[in-house]
Write a structure and sequence with these properties.
21% strand, alpha+beta, three-stranded antiparallel beta sheet, 448 residues
Length: 448
Amino acid sequence: MNKDIFKSDDSLKLAIDGFFDDRLDPARAMMEQVIARNLLYYMGEQYIEYVVSTGQFRKRQDAQLLPTPVSNEIREYVRSVVSMLMNQKMVPRIWPNTDEKEDIQAADIGQALLNYLDYDNDASFFDEKEKTIILLCLSGTTFMRTYADSDSGIAIPDGGRIGGVATESILPFNVRLDPLGDTLRQKRWIGIQSLKDKEWVEDTFKTKIEHDNANSTTIDYQRYISKLVQSVSPWKGRQLTGVYFGLEDDDSVLFREVEFKPTTEHPDGLYVVICGNKVIYKKDRMLIKVRDGAWHYSLTDFHYNRVPGRFWSDPGVNDLISPQNIINEIDQALAINRMGIGKPKILSPGDVGLKKIGIGGHGFIALSYNPIMGQKPEFKEGTSLAPQVLEERKFQKMQMQDAAGDPKNVLRGQQPSANASGVLTEGMREAAERGRYPDIERFNRALA
């Protein structure tokens, strides 16, 4: 890394602006498009599409009567992975340095503190854990961030607080990384961008913030996706109307944070905050304090399908897109068939009419015709799709279950077959989890 970038705030800001340029890391930019696609499939909303050229979400220009599929096997796959990883209860353990009574008591207190932090703030840590697992399936690589939080922790008599630690799931859209290195510790720097309230930034950092016109077109995916999710149609057979996915002007500003790993000139690392086209905070240490040469970024990376030599991993949903597309096409074809040639037909050589009649207290609509003026109407059954179409749909569903590593969906509590005993079901569940053992271990290592 060029040492000149640290000589002044202007050179540092110029370098950091380059860090957040997607052209610096084409692999990350490509994964961004994949994540946006997988997110829409997970939501099951077929009337929304992601335009790569503009980086925008918009309504798909389809026919008005084209039905929207409601079968969402991708969401079922994500549910099975969530149930598998959430069921793994990992308890942190603190060991005493010696067998002395004081050390043992100190370790017990530390153990109790860690357990308390997990359940602090209505056990929000477990909610963040679940969001991380969902993003792991959709993005392949996702992040959790750990940082000091003055608003949480344990109150002490002098009015302060200790043990204030916050952990939250970070959207991959908002993360920028040094393109060199295929592990996080090999990265020379990490960056996080998000939207913050302008008043909060000014009060916290005691500085006046001006809107950065140079970065006014930067898409903040956190707000973008939030608006998209809120606007999804609750009825899958009905198009969205009057929904605009642009970013309206508000009083939020782009907030960029960069952490630099320790170097010879900065043995404790460096933490820089840029907002409003200027450096508003710089600290000659990392967010997590360096101790005895050991350092850690505030971000922790989670990976699903690792690719050797590349940092960004492939999401499991990628393997399910093709069969999901086929299932969607079959569902649409069935719906169109029932509205078209699959309907019964009436061939009448003369005029026919509708007549309301009642039998046994029930009302009916009967077809009437004049036998003197014409022949009897002819009824013909509709032409339905061939049975092999439904067999193809069943086959694609089985393919998705096999590719997901949960052939009978036993990880989410489904009964494999009508004759399966409880012992057999539990055995199949254990076998499915053993097949996922490397994934479980990798997730738990990152979580620890």
